[in-house]
Amino acid sequence: MKLLFVLLVSCAWTLIGAQNYYQALMDYLENRLLAIEDRMQLWHDHAHQYHTEMLDFKKLTSEAMAGLRNDHSMIFKDLEGASARVNLVERELEYVETQNSPRACVKMADKVIEQEAWGRQARDEVEVEDDWEELQSRVSGELGEVFSYFSQTTSGDI
Q: How far apart are CA 96 and CA 2, in angstroms?
């Protein structure tokens, strides 16, 4: 009987040890699963945060692109208007050139060739510059009139 009692006690003791071991194993596994769940929740929160940031960035960039498109179209229209004005000014310059002889500076060079006085080039350059300043002042005055005319006629178009 004593042997039976020892056998029962040892079996009970083994079962209690196995139950404690099993409980410790279950606690360990439960803690590991909770840690994995916490990490998964953290990753989900980060992914959601990145997703909302990307949506905000997409919205911001789309607004910026719409503004750039608008600015581009306005600049394009301004450049078209400037191109039209430049074309008008070029036509007016061509008209002014046909009205004024471009040979005003050439006359002095012809005189130098006739006299064969190339040694006096420094003094002649001063005279050529004087003639050039006279021609430039005449053309500048006429261009000022042309620009004022165009600014008056095209100011209502813009």
A: 137
**Residue 55 φ then ψ, to 5°:** -65, -40
157 close to 119: Cβ distance less than 8 angstroms: no
CA end-to-end distance (rounded Å), the chain: 118
Structure tokens given for 84: 């039209």
C-alpha to C-alpha distance for 51 and 44, rounded to whole angstroms: 10
Quote the pTM value: 0.40
Read off the pLDDT of residues 22-79 as tens digits, 9 standing for 90 and up.
888 999 999 999 999 999 999 999 999 999 999 999 999 999 999 999 999 999 999 9
- Of 54, 57, 53, 77, give the one whose Cα is nearest residue 65: 57
93-115 pLDDT, tens digit per residue, is 888 888 876 555 556 666 656 66
- Asked if residues 144 and 89 have their Cβ atoms less than 8 Å apart, the reply is no
Give percent helix, percent strand, percent coil of the chain, each to the nearest 5: 95, 0, 5
Strand (E) positions, 14-94? none
